[in-house]
Amino acid sequence: MQYALMIYTEPGYDEALSDVEREAVQAEYLALADDPRCVGFAQLQPAETATGVRVAGGRTLLTDGPFADTKEVLGGLCLIEAADLDEALELAARIPAVRFGGGVEVRPVGRAGVGPGVGPGVGPGAGVTPGPVVRR
């Protein structure tokens, strides 16, 4: 089964690390990315580079930066193939961010259009055709 490991960190958490510590952390992330159970691994750019997209009243609304002002931000994600939740949790515990005050949310991944509440025609935006784009 596939699991998404969503990695949350405090922005700039690694700035307090020495060059040697930073290189060791990078090596740990590379080792996880090279693990055969890892399907994909991505580090996200800072939250300030995000653009939020919402559709309301037939209009597409764009917002610069993160939607919420929070202490932790989604800093990366890893898609893994694991036999069960226990194996996924074991891999999540190896992610360096958890040792530096961050956290990892582990969530099973379903295929698009399969399962309850998933797929086209389901959810709050079902059947909405995006209208004009409005930047806030």
TrEMBL record:
Residues 1-109 form the YCII-related domain. InterPro entries: Dimeric_a/b-barrel, YCII. Belongs to the YciI family. This is YciI family protein. It comes from Streptacidiphilus alkalitolerans.
